[in-house]
Amino acid sequence: MSAEYATFGLAPATRAGGLLANGDYQVHRDFVDFVVDGRPLLFRLSDLDAVSPLASDVPPSIFTAQVRSLLLETEAPLPAGRYIVYGCPECEDLGCGAVTTVIEHDGEDVIWRDFAWQTDAHADLELNGYHGIGPFRFHGTEYRAALASLLNGDAPSPRRRVLLIGARVALLARLAAALRTIGVGADIAQNADEVPADELRTYGAVVLGPSAGAGERDAVRRALTTAGVDVPCVHGLAPIVPLLVAQTEQALNGSPPQQRRLTELTAADGAAEVHVTSSCRVRLTAYRLDRLARTHTQDVFDGVLDPGRHRLPLDAKAVRGEAYVVARTGGTVLVTAVGR
């Protein structure tokens, strides 16, 4: 069939987890995304919270089977030669909905065509087709080399564990429990000096409790330097567990800026400013502490934004006093204090 050539690649990606304002939570998932013509394919789907089948937390045998399926070494899992390229990040059940496409050989080339949203065995292209996406023709050698590299040990193995440091053990225990709930491992220590260097190297980030002073922060950085560990060191903004979870997710995102949909967040003068690189759904949540140190949470924006900079008004009551704003897309979380 006729289709223009596109480049094919792979890149590590994250579906950020977190505790939501309504009491729900979403699970942290690390996966490999498809990069078409230098841009993550997921970015073409503006309001989709999904992961590819190449997730790092599935058993090696399942991961290998997914790669070999995309290499067309096995039969398509769905009728009419259709393959799932993005599915539900919570359960990966087709009943929750998935993005599927036909993958086929055309001589030495590989073609992805007829993208659709699918909730059962058969796709309705007229009703649920993504008519503005594809078809894509990939050079077979490039396509196979990219996927085969995952079978040769190049699959990402993100360090999805964090070290929590601080004297307020009760707060850190609640934070550790919340992180484990969303799929991020967490260990607690009073200081970094008591953690062996080999163990420090297994963490993707170090989070210090809000009460940590400058001396404690400097000690942690010295311990990391001595151990030869280069990971983000996060200073907790406030004793608010969902806020600390968001800070942790921000630190764990190691993707380059060009592969992030949400790149900037500031909040001051009654508004938040965000910069997005592609059309996507953005949610803003405000957290504040009142005079009695009680936490108040409010969702202040939830909508799809076009690429560019956006100024979004904030409810004055939601950001009164000591306040913070969390901006969230499917793959990125940013946190900021509200300036005055």
Please state how the strands of the largest beta sheet are arranged side by side: 6-7-8-9
Task: Indicate the low-confidence ranges by residue numbers.
Answer: none
* Relative helix content: 10-25%
Provide the number of structural domains.
3
Number of helices: 7
**Average pLDDT number:** 91
What is the molecular shape? Answer: globular
Q: Tell me the distance between the termini.
A: 59 Å
Rg result: 22 Å
- Give the class from helix and strand content and strand pairing: alpha+beta
Total strand segments: 20
SSE run:
EEEEEHEEEHEHEHEHEHEHEEEEEEE
Estimate what percentage of residues fall within beta strands: 25-35%
Major sheet description: 4 strands, antiparallel
Walk me through what this model shows.
This protein has 340 residues and is α+β, with helices and mostly antiparallel strands. The chain is built from 7 helices and 20 strands. It has 3 domains: 8-154, no CATH class; 159-247, 3-Layer(aba) Sandwich (Rossmann fold); 253-340, Immunoglobulin-like, CATH 2.60.40. The chain has helices at 60-70, 125-128, 140-154, 169-181, 197-200, 214-227, 241-252, and strands spanning 8-15, 18-19, 25-26, 29-36, 39-40, 82-86, 98-106, 109-118, 136-138, 161-165, 185-189, 205-208, 233-235, 262-268, 271-276, 280-289, 295-305, 308-313, 322-328, 333-337. The strands form 6 sheets. A 4-stranded antiparallel sheet has the order 6-7-8-9. Strands 11-10-12-13 form a 4-stranded parallel sheet, sandwiched between helices. α1 runs antiparallel to α3 (140-154) and α4 (169-181) packs across α7. The longest helix has 15 residues, at 140-154. It is globular.
